[in-house]
Fold:
Amino acid sequence: MTGKTVYDKLWDAHRVREDADGTTLLYIDRHLIHEVTSPQAFEGLRLAGRRPWRTDSVLAVPDHNVPTTNRRGGISDPVSRIQVETLDSNCREYGIEEFTMNDPRQGIVHVIGPEQGATLPGMTVVCGDSHTSTHGAFGALAFGIGTSEVEHVLATQCLIQKKAKNLLIRADGQLPPGVTAKDLVLAIIGRIGTAGGTGHTIEFGGEAVHSLSVEGRMTVCNMAIEAGARAGLVSVDDATIEYMHGRTFAPKGEMWERAVASWRDLVSDDDAVFDQTVVLDAAELVPQVTWGTSPEMVVGIDAVVPDPAAAESAVKRGGMEKALAYMDLKPGTPIQAIKLDRVFIGSCTNRYRGSARSRCRHPRWQGRVQHQAGAGGAGLRPGQAAGRGRGSGQGVPRGRIRMARAGLLHVSGHERRPAGAGRALRLDLEPQLRGTPGPGRTHPPGQPGHGRGRGGARPLRGYPSMIKSATEYTENTENVLFSGAARSACAGRQQSVLSVYSVALL
Amino acid sequence: MEKFETLTAIAAPLDRSNVDTDAIIPKQFLKSIKRTGFGPNLFDEWRYLDHGEPGRDNSKRPLNPDFVLNQDRYQGARILLARENFGCGSSREHAVWALLDHGFRVVIAPSFADIFFNNCFKNGILPIVLPAETVDQLFNETEAQPGYELTVDLAGQKVITPNGVEFGFEIDPFRKHCLLEGLDDIGLTLQHADEIRAYEERRRQEAPWLFQS
Structure:
């Protein structure tokens, strides 16, 4: 018998039944819910006269519509308020544990899961959010689901699934200093493309991945979906187990010992068979920057904007030409020569404390980038959508370059502004809001995907609900990121940082 | 999901081709947190003379007297007669929820948009494809005879006119089974409830920490 991958093991352990055609009823251990994708699921239950199968598997947190300033005043936007209140009342009605808006444990759903130990190795974890793959960092099988599936899990504790293929992405060697998890995952996407993981579950392995902090692994797994895979994961090692120890929902005492013994098996066997394997040399990586409108349009900071003429296919060439036109960039331009007008700091993927702690550490690049950023007159609003009103003399945001990492950029002469002032919104946060249009999730005009991030022509001016959601989301992120000791630890850095990139990557 | 048994009901003729889902339920109504309550805004732009917004009292809005669903003779209709490519446009499931909420259980048309067609089955609406000339005939008869009722016999896969004329229709056997039994995906999964419980029992022994709250 051949060995199993981690994904094989997780799948087998959660298979309730399987039909001849491979259709499987997969058992779900942890169901995270938030206010945006759950109301109609609860309503569906009620209409059908059903009850949740196992409420102790569900953990609820409002995170998309929660104000980040002055929560005592409640939520002013009526649509947001109704969504949050609906979550509250559904949780009360069914006895589901919820971290409500003013609960100190409240935070972004993908942060609180691990933080509370509600996400454990070996679990199946689902949430009505495409970035649920984040939880795979802990050796869990985690993926995003739609509202009808939220209802399905509530009612049956299972999902109807077919097994994906196994893709191993192995990053050998160590990342150089100043090259982060985000660079690693961007380099991976640059290599395999945004559809490279389609139909697969990705296991991120190799020395470089296992040398990452668990937060760094979360960043990598978060972006599995950008590589086309619904789920990405990292096998369990000492760092995973150490992270879980003592967390609120984690097992204790003798149960902890039993759990750890079982988690130790969550590694791919030596003779496991992967359908595909991709190998990278992590030691060769430099900070990555995307130059286009898709995360696969990415090059190293030492490279130049690529020439579509060199593309291997007409389709690819067309896509590159459109992206360059959109970004207003010319082939051959050195990445470091691109001037930045606006800088967005803090992000959804890099939202974990580990990334926030990153500094401008890269000895080779820091100086030059710093200079260029200074020349561009960067504005800086940590943890918030950046952008300034037109007519300010600096124009609308053109800082479309996505310097996709923490610790890359020092921005001098930055400006910090309070939250909530009306101004043009960069599309940076749009991906978090992308997906099914719904309350507070307005689409920008034009086709999704292409069209994000164009500060000059198409900021999301005139979409007040979007601006609200976007600013709330980032503000919220900041609250999570910089809570307590981390906040003071990061305080100095917030003024000099750091991570620059457009969340359009997400 | 409600079981689909034989239905005899008034048929309302909506004589337009390519009716898209934004016509069925305009986008401003998608902000709802419910999948019920869309009925009063079904075909909102055709049905009312003013512009509709969520939260307005629809009973106080001026009705368009020319619109078919506003006519006395079609009140209580549960079967919608439609033209080609019904339900095209955005994939919003709200379109089906709005039809259902208004009381429709059957839509008869020469053709349907694919996503809409699938969404119907998920929500207990039966979309019936009949040849264009048959649909034409049904339109003519409906309009000619007030109180005209059609009978839809799903088990027998036929539409029966008041004169006893029968038109057979095709349906995927599995979907037919689900509609007849009132089974949605959840209903189907719950047929395996014993297996789910047995699995849980086994897992509780193997990995009890997964069952701590």
Notes: Chain B touches chain A at residues 1, 27, 30-31, 33-36, 93, 122, 184-187, 189-190, 192-193, 195-196, 199-200, 203, 206-213 (CB under 8 Å). The domain at 10-146 of chain B is CATH 3.20.19.10 (Aconitase; domain 4). Strands of chain B lie at 7-13, 79-81, 106-109, 126-129, 149-153, 158-160, 166-168. Residues 78 and 103 of chain B are 6 Å apart (CA to CA).
